[in-house]
Design a protein that fits this description.
With 260 residues, the protein is of the alpha/beta class. The chain has a single domain, classed as P-loop containing nucleotide triphosphate hydrolases (Rossmann fold), CATH 3.40.50.300. It is 42% helix and 22% strand. It contains ten helices and ten strands. Strands 6-7-8-3-9-10 form a six-stranded mixed β-sheet, sandwiched between helices. Strands 2-1-4-5 form a four-stranded antiparallel β-sheet, with helices on one face. β7, α7 and β8 form a beta-alpha-beta unit. α6 runs parallel beside α7. The longest helix is centred in the middle third of the chain and has 21 residues. The protein is globular and about 55 Å long. Pfam families: ABC_tran, BCA_ABC_TP_C.
């Protein structure tokens, strides 16, 4: 699905991504972990077209997509969510979902006058799809709530719902668990697994919660100082002495020992 080859992204003399190479297999839920400053979000931003790489390349299904703009990647089925949710706060949850699909007939003034029947039909279809998404995510009771009133976890579910309004092939999730309580995090995890198994979504997930990563992700890719340090199952990663000593810290090491 995605292949990253010797990717660099420098900010002046700082090498945020420093020769990273990795692969994300079709149909996987791949975890991307590492300490703050490891280059994870920068890597996501380069893959998703938010930032241009200094050098290296990104391939998707054998096609080079290096440097393509986010809207071009959107049409290829590559989507990226952010650590801080980006909702339209003054619109309802349902309206936020209905805004996602591009090239709607009602977007042009001419069509608003000449294609009212087609616009009405499209809106009815979007409404139906939005309600199906809300049911899938078990937040249909929030359909008419203003998105700005949602909790942090509910906003993360809404972001996940947006990816379901289009034909997403791969979704990059940046710290989906940040600021989310355990109950909602489990709901988000369940939705990710269902989307993967039932709808064929491929995911790459940045997350610091190792329990969440271990539950969802295989493989797990480890980054440190802009480079890929290790890759393997969550169990393998947590037992990797080099990974533990290099940057995951004594907290994880003690957790591994305690669980052992």
């Amino acid at each position: 699905m995605i292949r990253v080859e010797n990717l660099h992204r420098h900010f002046g003399g700082f090498r945020a991504v420093d020769g990273a190479s990795l692969e994300i297999q079709t149909g996987s839920i791949t975890g991307l972990i590492g300490p703050n400053g490891a280059g994870k979000s920068t890597l996501f931003n380069v893959i998703a077209g938010v930032l241009k790489p200094t050098s290296g390349r990104v391939m998707m299904d054998g096609e080079e997509i290096t440097g393509l703009a986010p809207h071009e990647l959107f049409h290829k089925g590559l989507l990226r969510t952010f650590q801080i949710a980006h909702e339209f706060s003054s619109m309802t949850v349902r309206e936020n979902l209905m805004m996602v699909p591009a090239r709607q007939s009602g977007e042009t003034l001419w069509n608003a006058w000449t294609a009212r029947r087609r616009i009405a039909q499209e809106e009815a279809e979007l409404l139906k799809k939005a309600d199906e998404v809300l049911d899938f995510l078990t937040i249909s009771h929030l359909r008419d709530e203003l998105a700005g009133n949602l909790s942090g976890g509910q906003k993360k579910l809404l972001e996940l719902g947006r990816t379901m309004m289009v034909d997403a092939k791969i979704v990059f999730l940046d710290e989906v668990g940040a600021g989310v309580n355990r109950t909602l995090l489990n709901t988000i995890g369940d939705a990710i697994v269902r989307l993967n198994k039932e709808r064929g979504y491929t995911f790459c997930v940045i997350e610091h919660d190792m329990d969440f990563i271990a539950r969802l992700c295989d493989p797990v890719i480890v980054m440190a100082e802009g480079k890929v340090l290790a890759q393997g199952s969550a169990d393998h990663i947590m037992e990797n002495e080099a990974v533990i000593e290099a940057y995951l810290g004594t907290g994880l090491k003690n957790k591994v020992v305690a669980n052992g």
